[in-house]
Specification:
The chain has about 230 residues and is an alpha/beta fold. It has six helices and 14 strands. The chain has a single domain, classed as 3-Layer(aba) Sandwich (Glutaconate Coenzyme A-transferase), CATH 3.40.1080.10. This is 3-oxoacid CoA-transferase subunit A.
Length: about 230
Amino acid sequence: MMNGTIDQIQTGVEFLNADKAIQRIPEGASIMVGGFGFPGMPRHLSKALVRRTELDQLTLIMNSLGSVSTLNALFEQNRIKKVIGSFFSTNKELVVAYQEGKVEIDLLPQGTFTEAIRLGGAGIPAFFTPTAAGTVLAEGKETRIINGREHVLEQSLTADVAIIRAHKADKAGNLVYKKTAQNFNPAMATAAKLTIVEVDEIVEVGELDPDSIGTPFIFVDIVVKREEV
């Protein structure tokens, strides 16, 4: 039986401000960014990432990079090498840059994108899916007939860093999400070497309902409390 109370257990989670947390991101990193549009997007951390102007050659793994996204500033500053996600067509400048060969885009159906992150976090390197079979998104990829239906081999996704948004964290690093704002965030927390989470509130260990915890502390490295609404 474990000795001592739970609040005496050292989890290794750090509590930093946004700029110090973003300093941990290496040059040329691949970065997962949570959020479905604005809900669940770590906007406070995103602004800190934009402020760290020397950081470039980045690969962003996120559902969308719209023209109104905070992180679109990275594209405007020529700091993005590649984006991987599902929805970029609203960002006309990004589409033109892709057509001109200035930025790489890996377009994935949204379900495939989500599953690729989930399986990356589970340590499964690839999977077959019928989604996109027979379309341009399947070109150059291995296919296989399974149960009489064509399937496409997709690579799972992992990243150097995940910057995500949660509603609350306790002082051990356990996370609670708020309604649909959880979207991609819990899966991304499991699929990165370094997970940085932005939260509205930090509470004492024991204050969170165990049944409401969406991400346990084992997947969390740095917690940042939002300094703005």
